[in-house]
Specification:
The structure is a single chain. The protein is an alpha/beta fold. It has 10 helices and 9 strands. The protein has a single domain, classed as Vaccinia Virus protein VP39 (Rossmann fold, 3-Layer(aba) Sandwich). Strands 3-2-1-4-5-9-7 form a 7-stranded mixed beta sheet, with helices on both faces. Strands 6-8 form a two-stranded antiparallel sheet. Helix 4 links the parallel strand 1 and strand 2. The structure holds S-adenosylmethionine. The site of S-adenosylmethionine has 20 residues, from helix 3 and strand 2.
Amino acid sequence: MAQSASATFDPSTYWTAPARNFRTSARLHMQHSLCQKTIGYLLDPTLPRGSPLRVADLGCGNGAWLCDLHDEFAKAGVSAQLDGYDINPVNFPAPAFLPSTVHLKQLDLLKPCEELTGLYDIVHVRAFGSTLAKTGVAPLLSVVLALLKPGGYLQWEESKVDRFLIESPPSAGIPSVACNTISRMLKAGSDGQGHDNSFIDKLDQVVTEYGFEDVHFKVFEKRKQDYKGWTEDFLMVWEELADMFPLKAQAPDSPVTRESFTELFQKAVAETEQGVAIHLGTINTVVGRKAM
Ligand SMILES: C[S@@+](CC[C@H](N)C(=O)[O-])C[C@H]1O[C@@H](n2cnc3c(N)ncnc32)[C@H](O)[C@@H]1O
């Protein structure tokens, strides 16, 4: 099962596929709101807020984090230029509808981008881990170091995307077989492809090894009152996975077909309707300063 799941998942093409459409953006809007409820701030309170500030958000998706940061800075009287970069611009709002300080640009961050060298006081990265599962952190951290001014700060937030936790309400006896099966399939598929997300549990070590200073690592537990939202968020991801399996007519011997996965997914949805929650446990964050 897991072998079939992994056979067609490629992090380097996943984010540019036509299926990353308005539904993906809607899911990212919800995820942004859930992240903010979990962490409680956009920018780590220890980061400088002196004007003018130049901030980059790498893998910015629909720009929701930057738009909220614009509001926060506007209220605090901080003047800033807020630049978002993403390989897929399909979910960028129209420039005319963005706040005046926010600019979004299509860019493959895993390719050289010399024109941005040394421009930024703060570089923010969130939920980029699935893209790094194959390459490791080196390509991303090289870009972050290049973009930052000397003494500039990285703020990075990740959850372990291969570690779905399935939680039934205590002593309610609600089955979670289908949810657990999909969770195990995804973990086995990720392991089978040699994806390594272990860096997410040691973001502080990783950025320290890259020469960052004043490194602070924090782990935020997801709140139980947000489990429903996280569950819906991940069900949307799981639903999209059906397309990665072959149709039964095309591959009758496949251990998992699109039809069998869809059936399993529907059972998983039924379990969540009984109260089973799907979440990733924690959001891990690190802040570090580039050497002067
Ligand atoms: C899980 S989404 C997170 C979006 C946003 N950071 C957030 O938290 O709402 C990952 C984003 O990284 C982008 N991405 C993936 N690979 C990229 C690359 N090589 N260069 C730039 N962006 C990339 C995807 O298009 C997607 O918008």
